[in-house]
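Researcher: I'd like a candidate sequence for this fold, 121 residues long. If you have to choose between options at a position, lean toward the conservative one.
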């Protein structure tokens, strides 16, 4: 679980950095490179690289791949980003987050349980 959170955080961090650093006019081009561009490379290189790790090392190493990548990304982000100068305090919509999580969990259960019962016919 921790590896998945780290991997997801690295993906989100790239979009946050592009939104903070790149001017609005160039933002879509940069996000196009980071989004589909890197995803295309990762979807082609990732499975064979995972096979190499499991064949030559151990499957346990697959869970540690994102750890050094995440540490490097966090270090670069904290050093490269300018300090926040806004005086406004951000407000978090806790109720909306809770409702979104509950609805997504319900849809996930519906999809997994519903798929299992429909194949029994």
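Model: Candidate sequence:
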């Amino acid at each position: 679980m921790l590896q998945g959170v780290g991997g997801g955080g690295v993906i989100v961090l790239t979009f946050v950095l592009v939104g903070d650093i790149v001017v609005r006019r160039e933002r879509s081009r940069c996000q196009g490179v980071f989004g589909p561009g890197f995803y295309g490379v990762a979807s082609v290189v990732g499975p064979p690289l995972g096979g190499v790790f499991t064949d030559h090392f151990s499957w346990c190493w697959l869970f540690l791949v994102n750890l050094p990548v995440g540490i490097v990304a966090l270090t670069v982000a904290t050093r490269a980003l300018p300090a926040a100068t806004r005086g406004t305090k951000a407000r978090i919509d806790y109720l909306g987050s809770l409702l979104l999580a509950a609805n997504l969990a319900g849809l996930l259960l519906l999809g997994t349980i519903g798929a299992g019962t429909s194949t029994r016919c």
